[in-house]
Design brief:
This protein has 124 residues and is mainly α. It has a single domain, classed as de novo design (two linked rop proteins), CATH 1.20.1440.60. It has helices spanning 10-27, 37-56, 61-87, 93-122. The protein is built from four helices and no strands. The radius of gyration is 15 Å and the shape is elongated.
């Protein structure tokens, strides 16, 4: 099946779900974190589906892969911020573990898309 729009990509859908799920968690952090960790976690979570979408709209596979690399970096950033929130006791262990499970799922899907695009690029 040919993907006609980035919204059809499961990785984009799961990344959107993750961003939506992370937002209220970040808003629950202490007010002192509003312009630091809260802001950072929301930006990195938003960056993941945004870069998947932006890459999909680019003209070349190389450009698409570049933006998927940025999405992967934002995913790693988000995982780090979730762990920081846990270490600061802003979130319980169960929330930490659940969110890291979600990031791992998005990461696997993202890696699969990157591998498929790299194969396509190598065969063209």
């Amino acid at each position: 099946m040919k993907i006609k729009h980035y919204r059809e990509l499961i990785v984009w859908q799961k990344a959107m779900d993750l961003a939506v799920e992370v937002h209220p968690v970040a808003l629950s952090f202490p007010k002192v974190e509003m312009f630091v960790l809260t802001s950072q976690i929301n930006r990195s979570a938003t960056s993941i589906p945004s870069n998947i979408a932006e890459g999909n709209g680019r003209r070349t596979t190389g450009e698409y892969l570049h933006f998927l690399g940025i999405a992967r970096g934002s995913l790693n950033e988000l995982e780090t911020q979730i762990t920081l929130a846990f270490r600061h006791d802003y979130i319980p262990e169960a929330v930490h573990d659940h969110l890291l499970g979600q990031t791992a799922s998005v990461g696997r899907l993202l890696n699969g898309l990157v591998e498929a695009l790299e194969r396509r690029q190598a065969n063209s």
